[in-house]
Amino acid sequence: MSVHNSNNSVNCKSKVNKSGSSKPMEWCNLFTIIGKEIRIAIDTEFQGNQTLTIQCSARVGDELRVQLYYSPEIPAPPAGCFGKSFSNRFPVPVKVMQPKPISPVLSPARMLADLFGLLPATHLSRYEGDLRRLKLLETSGNAIASGNKGRKTSRLPQLPRIDVTMVGHFLRADFLRAFGRDFYKELLAPSDRRPSVALRDSKVIGFSGTEGLRDVFSDPVVEYVAYGGKFYQIRLGTMDTNCVCGSISLDNLAKSYLGVAKDDSIGEEEKQNMKKLFCDPSRSVGAYRYAVQDAILGCDQALLVWKERSDGHFVKFRAVVQRVRVPPDQS
Questions:
Q1: Phi/psi class of residue 229: alpha, beta or left (left: φ > 0; alpha: ψ in -120 to 50)?
Q2: Is residue 296 part of a domain?
Q3: Domain assignment of residue 167, given as a range
């Protein structure tokens, strides 16, 4: 994912630690440290229809930080699994945060909180947040304004926004596994209204808004966060390095861009039964290390690919592949 500040009016008095420390951070400090774009890589391990692990990573200062989530049906990573013998093989300092069980409500904002060590906040679904915005309009007395041809239109107040880009390699395999089931259900299939967000099944899979032209050239709001008297909208876009670099394995890309490859502790045949490896006390350390490596290599490789391809051709390519929308089911 990438996060960038799109509203410079947000003020925060707290000092920002750019050294990679895991000291708790204010949400408003995201706008300070993200003058340079921060991208977060996503990867999953699964067997059949069961998601076993979700791992994401991001650069925080000079440190590459990783958050791992694991299924309640497999044991937690053993103590010392991600010690120096693991992290020292990478060309940058790597810090694996405390692993957590996969939660049904896991969402982009909750991932940001875990990766950046953000202080606890109130998380609202897309539709809970929309309702709160409308209430803010009502209390301000500006809920209804005259629109074109005499129509009445709502003018929603401008909110600070956090734009998040999920980066993956062949993202189609991971996109619908990267968050909790309740997040997807509440966003794509609300029980009391037509969804404002739909799944975009295009060259680069992702979400698209369904509310007309204003959604065409902007990644959709997928949730909101309330913290410290401020209200933030979280928008989610996607990038697939497989579409940028072609059909080449992440391991080979990492060798080319980073000079680092995954270890060979897990054989090709064993990858077909990862759950068995996670549950085997003699193999679980190797299985978890294998899983986390994809997020680490994917994050640094994505940073380099993005920088190298940031000319006009790549910008045009990204705009085209992300804007083919699939309308929601009208039934």
A1: left
A2: yes
A3: 36-322
Classify burial at 11, counting beta carbons within 10 Å of its beta carbon; exposed 0-12, middle 13-18, buried 19 or more. Answer: exposed
Residue 19 in domain: no
Say what the pTM is: 0.81
Task: Give how far Cα 259 sits from Cα of 166, 254, 264, Å.
Answer: 24, 6, 16
Structurally, how many domains does the chain consist of? 1
In a domain, residue 213? The reply is yes
Beta bridge partners, 25, equal: 118
Position 255 confidence tier, pLDDT thresholds 50, 70, 90 = low
Q: What tokens appear for 206 in the block? A: 């992702």
The CATH number covering residue 182 comes to 3.30.420
Q: Which two tokens stand for residue 253?
A: 């890309």
What would the two tokens of residue 177 be?
């596994």
Strands 161-168 and 230-240: parallel
* C-alpha distances in Å from residue 263, one per residue of 54, 266, 289: 19, 8, 9
b/e for 97-107, b at 16 or more Cβ within 10 A? bebeebeeebb
In a domain, 17, yes or no: no
Query: 320 falls in which pLDDT band (50, 70, 90)?
Result: very low
Q: pLDDT, tens digit, for every residue of 121-131?
A: 999 999 999 99
Exposure class string for 135-148: b at 16+ Cβ within 10 A, else e: eebeeeeeeeeeee
